[in-house]
Design brief:
Elements lengths: L3 E5 L3 E2 L6 H19 L3 E9 L3 H10 L3 H18 L6 E4 L3 H16 L3 E11 L4 E3 L5 E2 L5 E2 L7 E10 L5 H10 L4 E2 L1 H12 L5 E2 L1 E2 L15 E2 L1 H11 L18 E5 L3 H14 L8 E4 L2 E3 L2 E2 L10 H8 L1 H11 L6 E3 L1 H30 L12 H11 L1 H10 L3 H22 L1 H7 L1 H22 L4 H10 L42
Helix pairs in contact: 2-3, 4-7, 6-8, 7-8, 9-10, 10-11, 11-14, 11-16, 12-14, 12-16, 13-14, 14-16, 15-16, 16-17
This protein binds 5'-O-[(L-methionyl)-sulphamoyl]adenosine.
Amino acid sequence: MTQRYTITTPIYYVNGAPHVGHAYTSVAADVIARWHRLDGHDVFFLTGTDEHGQKVEQAALAAGVDPQDFVDRVSADFRDMARAMNVSFDDFIRTTEPRHFRACAALWRRLREDGHIYLGAYEGWYATRDESFYGEDELVLRPDGTRVAPSGAPVEWVTEPSYFFRLSAWQDRLLAFYDANPDFIGPPGRRNEVLSFVRQGLKDLSISRTSFRWGVPVPDDPDHVIYVWWDALVNYITALGYPDQDGPLWRFWPADLHLVGKEIIRFHAVFWPAFLMAADIELPCRVFANGWWTADGEKMSKSIGNVVEPRALAAEFGVDAVRYFLLREVPFGGDGDFSRRALISRLNAELANGLGNLAQRTLPQIARNCGGRLPSRGEVTTEDRALLAQADALVDTLRGLIDRQALHEALEEVWKVVRAGNAYIDHQAPWALRKTDPERMATVLRVLADVLRQVATVLQPFMPDSMGRLLDQLGVPAADRTFAALAVVLEAGLALPAPHGIFPRHVEAAAAGTG
Ligand code: MSP
């Protein structure tokens, strides 16, 4: 039976426009989803928008729009951003959809009937900006004497009747689960953070609000709406048809990977597993947290005016260059800083001069000197063999790295081969062999074509469009671009399309001529 693979992004709040931070998690998830598809797996890739809560209600009010109209508009914008970044989701869930209300109600009732949810009263600190409750001891004292959430968000004292989830009952079982599943949380720093949070003791979690209306109503108690984080987490099973655990999509549960930002690890690695355990539903296999992007060294914010818009970048530099930059610039899991300079430098050095150059030094020579047909490999030398072996090993090496979400290392492994390929062509100098030893020239160019094919095949998840174009130029049929198809040797003599460059160098208009 085909192995299945389920991956999710967080669902994005629709209180503001999408920016590069949102694109980041989605692009990373897309790379992993595409990787598994090319590896022959049956993939379910879920993303979407988180449309409830006070923050969204306030944003709609501020815009003078009805909340539903507001969320329709912003959600469509997130979907458009995902499309523009070439994010190949299988489903885009919206928490305002009827299917989601149905799933929430079913899960709520189940937990309530089994005594995991009870009615009490909430008193405590709430930060609307984070949609999060904080303990007294978590608040941070500012120099002006006010106390704020650890994120810097203002907090208010809230007193209201509330339903609670009996989170305190799950502390030991959660710790036992982390212990038995050391790979459940990545990277390791986040795991430690979660462990120490849980070890400190878990308090019951307030999961309903009565002070505003924009949410999923609590079943049988319409004065309450469900706390936005409770509702949001349920999206992952709504999309798989919950409560129809006999339905066609349920086979995609449990998720193999929830990809999330570092600030929301607690919700995914503590609260969500506890809800699921209480409902007797299997737990996801892994939660991995990516880091945060700043822009030119500063936190991105509307007030500073430094919010980086991913679609504008894609329009200027090409979507693949942006995808590549985001995943190459920082180790996945760590924080990064975005700057145009850094993007342009990677685009020029690694894409144009590195991979682009390797293709540009190979394909036009095949076009000119081999009659535009894929040459045959004659006798191979030790050097040929070494380069081919390095390229052939990529799929297996990358598979291991992608399983650990080490996306930056995966790219580094590919670039080792790109650099080796460029060194090989310098050394072999096929252009000089044209007159002296055309057979050897053909072999060298064929070795390079085969290396490029390996490289382009494994890079498809990262840069789907441009690697598609490179594989076109290499004569690889669309149906033979999976990892398994790498075993199919292309026949010598195959007519190749006319070559054209895939990564033009970028020259900054203002800086043109200054190097
Ligand atoms: N709605 C919740 C998630 C619910 S999941 C059941 C939420 N939404 S969010 O829109 O605020 O954030 C969504 C994702 O975007 C998070 O993973 C977050 O880390 C990511 N990013 C938002 N800004 C970011 C940066 N500046 N840099 C990197 N990622 C950031 O939280």
